[in-house]
Write a structure and sequence with these properties.
Length: 181
């Protein structure tokens, strides 16, 4: 009985450990880390097209009397506030994306396949989504009703925050940073 419990415990630990990746160091946009200062973002990418306070229902909104701002660029958004770093909030991958995006030091783009990304990220699991449980942000960039939508969900094991990489018809189409309410 103890042997069975030990095997189950080891399997559970190894499965959860494989998903614990330091996303903070893994993803980069033109060399910027997941978390970067507003000054570094502007120095690297230039002035954003738009800056606005999003006022979400939960999550990033006016927490502890701090106003969060979105720095909106072509296909890339950052969110943060003046006393802390900004995070890469989301990226829409397309052939026209003008930024260099890398994961674990390997360039990724709208041509990156799911199999390729799983190898780059060290992940082994992904989920196939239905249109019903696909985020509207992903549906908005899809080209038709009969497409296969898959997602790779990565956590760092240190917090409840995580990142999602969405694939449509086996090609990377979107990245989103998630933090719970």
């Amino acid at each position: 009985m103890n042997t069975i419990l030990l095997i189950i415990s080891l399997f559970t630990f190894s499965s959860s450990y494989s998903n614990n990746v330091s996303t903070q160091d893994a993803i980069k946009i033109n060399g910027l880390s997941l978390f970067s200062s507003k000054d570094n973002i502007i120095k690297t990418l230039g002035k954003p097209k738009v800056v606005f306070a999003p006022h979400y229902d939960c999550g990033w909104d006016d927490y502890d009397d701090v106003v969060y701002y979105v720095l909106k660029y072509d296909s890339v958004n950052f969110i943060g506030h003046k006393t802390s770093n900004y995070v890469i909030k989301d990226i829409n991958f397309s052939p026209f994306l003008k930024y260099k995006i890398s994961y674990n030091g390997v360039n990724i783009s709208s041509e990156t396949s799911l199999k390729s990304f799983l190898k780059i990220s060290g992940q082994s699991k992904h989920e196939i989504l239905t249109r019903r449980n696909t985020p509207s942000s992903v549906l908005a960039i899809m080209n038709g009703p009969h497409q296969i939508i898959e997602v790779v969900h990565i956590t760092d094991g240190k917090s409840d925050d995580s990142v999602y990489f969405y694939f449509v018809n086996d090609k990377l189409c979107r990245y989103e940073y998630f933090t719970p309410c």
